Structure prediction request, 715 residues.
Amino acid sequence: MGSVMSGLQIEKLSMRFDLPNGSSVQALKDVSIDLKAGELLSVLGPSGCGKTTLLNIVAGFLAPTDGRIVLNGHTVKGPAAERGMVFQQGALFEWMSVRENVGFGPSMKGMPKAEKKKIVDHLLDVVGLQDFKEKAVYELSGGMQQRVALARCLANEPDVILMDEPLGALDALTREKMQGLVLKLWKETGKTIILITHSVEEALLLGERLIVMAPRPGRIHTEYRLPFAEMGVGQDLREVKKHPTFGQTREEILGMIWDMEEEIMGRTEDA
Amino acid sequence: MELLADLWGELVAVLQTLLVAAPFIIGYILLILLMMVIWGAIRKLLTPKRDYGSLKTVTFGDESAVTSNTAASVVSIVLIFVLWGAFTGSKLLPGFLHAPGPFVGEGSFTYTITTPDGQTDDATVSVVVHPLTEETAAPEVAPGDGIAKNDSIAIPSYRSELLRVDMNDEMGRDEDTFITAVDGQPIAPGDAVDVAFGRVAMSDKGTLNIVPATGMQMEPIWLPAPEAVWSRLGEIATVGYRNSTLAEHLGYSLFRVIVGFLLGALVGIPLGYAMGLSNWFRGWFDPIVEFMRPVPPLALIPLVIIWAGIGEVGKIILLFLAALWIMAIAARSGVSGVRISKVHAAYSLGASKWQIMRHVIIPNSLPEIFTGARVAMGVCWGTVVAAELVAAEKGAGMMIMVASKFQSTDIVLMGIILIGIIGFSIDMLMRQAEKWLVPWKGKG
Prediction:
């Protein structure tokens, strides 16, 4: 595997939305990220910093006004199975059972039934939903639904998994459990993951790399390399949180985002 | 301005009618409240235990605490039949529940005439009131003594008769001899006197108008008794009405509804999908659909009759049009209602456009389409009956329309009840089908 050809490169990405009233919004400006295969990047930032736009461009739902996304040596032009996506909630197909949801990607490819069943059964084991495979997804709890979403994404064997606040709507306890699951899946599958989150703690726990974005225009503010994700694999996440640098980094980032929010408030008040 | 004055007059007339009905409505409401209190007491006696609902202290305003009370529904329906039976003298009800019926039988009253020279004389009028269906002759009576002679008359119940009682008297109005009293009570033209069997009024010219009491029961021509409607149902189910059996009448109506609805859905759903998926189609059809939707299908009947006649084609075109716009709008909003994250998820799972249509957009729109189908079936059923009222050779609407022309109120009532039952059954079936076919409705 040549190092130039593998991984995900986000190259000088800019995104400008023209508004109907003639003005325009610079959602992203010159964002460049070089992600090696198997890295887990978490992206943090105040609302309006363009992190969801960034993810939508990587997923191929939006075309950037400038720059490009390169995955394994070729430029991204639209959505494709190589880049799986996990949404916050409500992206499961409620007219399908858990099993059919997980098997959606393979079905679309026309994979033979026996092969598909093997993949689905394996993944349901991994996410601990083997007993629920014939249930309708709306019969599951929020946490279980997100497990289905993860399994559905993995069933397609994507190179990159994009997560748009996948745990945002869960209660605190379920969220912690799911964070452990995400780490476990990341380690076991070796996928490249980009995770967008509002929670500083989650970004620290899960991100091998962490990018804090700043708004107006959306850009990279600070980048961290963190040891916590490695620590968290196979270990109680609460122990990781007790680590002195964890608290220190959390305070630092919170302060950073706090300042950005203050600045936005000040600016809108001036206007 | 004249129009406004006319409308004001109409409004006053309507309000006056309502005012007449007000005591009955108030009585009905009091009856409901009375039943509620009685039922509450019975329930307390039967189940003194406290369930979860009874422990709630806030129930007024708590929407979840309000459920349909089955007992109230049962009592309400039973009461309708009891009232119906009571005011029609139904044989299904014990007699003490009947409202006072019309006077039937023999009665009499006396009248007094006064001659110009102040002489008075009495005579008796024998009255026989017979049921409408039984012809009865006036009884023979002896003329009696004096100037005034006795009279007799037979009157069908619910009717009144004018009787020139002085015709056979020795001196009549031509001799300036006038009736001055009835049953001893003085009477003058325009007056009325209560007698044992009803009322006797005097016309302006001095003729007596004999009005037997009608009681509070309805004449069958206004409202037949329940058993009359029931026996009519049996008769029409076996013998038929207007050359067709009941099954044929109802079958034709249902056939029109189902074919019209299916054609409407067949065209409307793809149309709605096209409008939900393409700007061009949305722009093209929006004005047409949005204009046609508020036009009641009934308003199209004259045009459809002009274009397609009163045969099956015309009816089905009408029902097709009734269903078309509803189904198109339902399908359109079903497509528009798909969450973008579902579509995005499907794309990033490698689905093609066709696969997204087949596996995401269509199933996602099915609940909306089912809701539309329920509405459309209801509208179609209403429209077919109305269209048959206007012109048809067979059908439920035609049956009741023709029956009303012959004053066969029992058939009219039977038809209305059957139309209601069928409409209700259609809705129930659609709901059941919805439960089976789109169990994920409202769960997204």
